[in-house]
Amino acid sequence: MSGHVKNMYPQLSISQAARTLLSLLLVAAIDSVNAGIACRNQQCESHIQRSSKLTRLIHMESVDLLKIYKASQGDMSELFCQMPINIVPDPNISGLDPSERMLSIYSHCKAFLPHLKRVSEQQRDLQPPSSHLLNNLTTAQYRTSGLANQINCIYQTLFPNLPIPLEPVDGPTSIHPSQNVFQQKVYGCVVLKNFKELLSQIRHELRILKNQMCKSRTFAYTNALF
Predict the structure, then answer these.
(1) Where does the UniProt annotation place the signal sequence (predicted)?
(2) pTM for the model
(3) 80: closest CA among 168, 167, 191, 3?
């Protein structure tokens, strides 16, 4: 009887990829619930420190992600990243003042999300389900989405009278509807290379913003008390 019951209810197994996705979804859900509270309650320096830590983590992971990607693409992988592709977002942050540069950071994070998703979709057809590359691409998407939300919080805190546009300020994102395998490999490599460079620039910008904006806001608040 017991053996019959075991046959009726076989043990369920969850792959590592599924566990990773479930944990990321849980974190994203918690973050989304707490996002409004965090934006209202945290101070300027706390916002930027939190975003800086997340950016540093994503940047470190992006270095490994690019290495894993190249290793999984076979011959000529080192050349893929050197080929020009005009549909991949430029990683350079633009703007003259802090508000414009913060908006550019937010815009770049949002602009890279569909490209990371497209690379993940393409590689899903080229890699085995257990591939570390697929797990890392999924992680990069969720972390970048979280970073965009945190940048939004910083922007709202520092510039409450300057709304963030609904669409990325650098223009709409264009992705070619179809690519052959070679084009996919080149496209993915350029996306991940530019993504890594973007994160390096964001780390630099957040350090400057913390020194420029948070100290001036603290000084102004202190003066208002006396």
Answers:
(1) 1-35
(2) 0.76
(3) 191
